Amino acid sequence: MTPVQHRSHVDDLLSFIRASPSPYHAVASAAQRLEKAGFRELRGTDDWTGTTGGSFVVRGGALIAWYAPEGTPAHTPFRIIGTHTDSPNLRIKPTPDTGSAGWRQIAVEIYGGVPLNTWLDRDLGISGRLALRGPGGTTDSRLVQIDEPLLRVPQLAIHLDRSVNDGLALDPQRHIAPVWSLGAAQEGALLRRVAAAAEADPDEVLGWDLMLHDIQPPGYLGAEQEFVVSSRLDNLISVHAGVTALAGAATAAGEPAYIPVLAAFDHEEVGSGSDTGAQSPLLERVLSRSVTARGGSPEDWSRALAGAFCLSADMAHAVHPNYAERHDPDHHPLPNSGPTVKVNVNQRYATDSTGIAVFAAACERAGAPWQPFVSNNAMPCGTSIGPLTAARLGVPTVDVGVPGLSMHSARELCGAQDPGHLAAILGAFVTSG
Question: What is d(CA 259, CA 55) in angstroms, rounded to the nearest whole number?
Answer without folding.
Answer: 11
